[in-house]
Specification:
Number of strands: 8
Helix content: 10-25%
Number of domains: 1
Distance between the termini: 26 Å
Number of helices: 2
Largest sheet: 4 strands, mixed
CATH architecture: Roll
Structural class: alpha/beta
């Protein structure tokens, strides 16, 4: 298996608010598109390593109890975590060393209540 995750979808309620939040956190432009009855906001491209979307649809319910996805936060996750907190996220687990080999992780709750994790080597 070349890649463990090929696509992710983050459920949101307030699309424009969530779009601004994730553009701030990830430093990318989110492209909007309606697909059927769902509104998608595509986050990044395969070239920048982020391959997924925020989604508004009746089937998607934000939750802090569902799947937890870890995003590569670059060299040091403190920068992305600070952007998330500055954009209104609540830090659930501050930067914590997992191990010397694995590096560090942190978890925040986005504006819709989803848990999002970050990973970095330093």
């Amino acid at each position: 298996m070349a890649h463990g995750i090929t696509w992710f979808e983050i459920p949101v309620v307030g699309f424009q608010r969530a779009k601004k939040f994730y553009e701030t956190v990830f430093g990318v432009e989110i492209r909007e598109q309606e697909l059927g009855q769902a509104l998608y906001g595509f986050i990044g491209t395969q070239d920048d390593g982020i391959n997924g979307a925020i989604v508004v649809h009746e089937w998607y319910v934000p939750s802090e109890h569902g799947l937890l996805v870890y995003f590569d936060a670059g060299e040091d996750l403190n920068h992305m975590l600070a952007r998330a907190e500055g954009a209104g996220a609540k830090v659930v687990i501050p930067k914590t060393q997992v191990s010397e080999d694995i590096g560090y992780m942190a978890v925040f709750r986005d504006l819709d209540g989803n848990r999002i994790a970050l990973h970095s080597k330093k």
